[in-house]
Amino acid sequence: MRFGNDTLGLVVAVLALLIGALTSGSFSDRPDEPDPRASVRRPAPVTPPAGRPLPEASSRDPEIRIELGPKRDSSGTAFAIGRGLWMTARHVADGCAKVGIVTGPRRAVRGSEVVVHQNADLALFRAPVRAAPVAVAVADDDLRIGQPGYHFGFPGGEPGALRSSLLGRGVLRESGRYSTREPVLAWAEVRRVPDRDEPLSGISGGPVFDSAGRLVGVHVAGSVRRGRSFTTAPRSMRELWARTGVTPAADGPVPALNDDDFVAAGERLRKDLVVAKAICVTG
């Protein structure tokens, strides 16, 4: 992988008019589900009892099907995983003529060298933005049912955070402009800030941390109607890192997290550009 240093510049001003909801806004549990962009009241939070180890992947794991429409100008979330290296969801960065990291009002830095996971909703790209990389992901066998997850990003294009609880495993099938079949983790939504009954479009590509501040997944899909979020499995992230020769940091800037301070922690991560808005221009 080579490094790129082009600046996206004032194109952000134009993008403000062009960028719609992130492609993940079209995510649904099945093709005939109503448009998830419509406001739908979320179900009551579900918090499974914690403690039981996450089972191994199984052929009986529930399947989530997603049809990907044509790529369009959009925004999502990315986070620093190395020096000048950013991770996001594949559907955020794949198919873009230009990708970039927003660094301030009407300012962005252009990215380059997008590399996608061939069978998972993950991508890496280069962008010359200084930010401390997050800590390496935990192993799958470190995860336990009911443990908290803390999601950070830009739902609806605005700063936001989500607290969830690990439910179990699933299989994500994406079809349309590309096809993948990957193991994912399913999370039950417990709390979101701001508390809006809207899809989480825009948080796709954002990191999910455990209570120790370690990366456990990347947010890739959700269902407002069911109060569910889906993240990549840790093994998929390790596969992409191994393919590209990336060695993530052992320690990172994310503090220990709990239900009282995770919102403030997310604000600091966005301020320090550890977690940033990612933009995509297709033309």
Would you kindly provide a written description of the structure presented here, covering whatever features stand out?
With 283 residues, the chain is mostly beta strands. It has a single domain (11-281), classed as Thrombin, subunit H (Beta Barrel), CATH 2.40.10.120. Helix content is 12%, strand content 35%. It is built from 4 helices and 14 strands. It has helices at residues 11-18, 90-93, 234-244, 262-271; strands at 63-68, 74-82, 85-88, 98-104, 107-110, 112-116, 123-126, 148-153, 160-176, 180-193, 207-209, 215-223, 228-232, 275-281. Strand 8 and strand 9 form a beta hairpin. Residues 1-41 have low confidence and may be disordered.
Name the quaternary structure: single chain
How many structural domains in the coordinates?
Answer: 1
Q: What is the tally of beta strands?
A: 14
Q: Tell me, what is the CATH class? A: Mainly Beta
Low-confidence stretches: 1-41
Q: Main sheet, how many strands, which sense, barrel? A: 7 strands, antiparallel
Order of strands side by side in the largest beta sheet? Answer: 5-4-14-2-3-7-6
Amino- and carboxy-terminal Cα gap: 24 Å
Portion of residues in beta strands equals 35-45%
Q: Do you know the CATH architecture?
A: Beta Barrel
- Estimate the mean pLDDT confidence: 84
Choose one word for the global shape.
globular
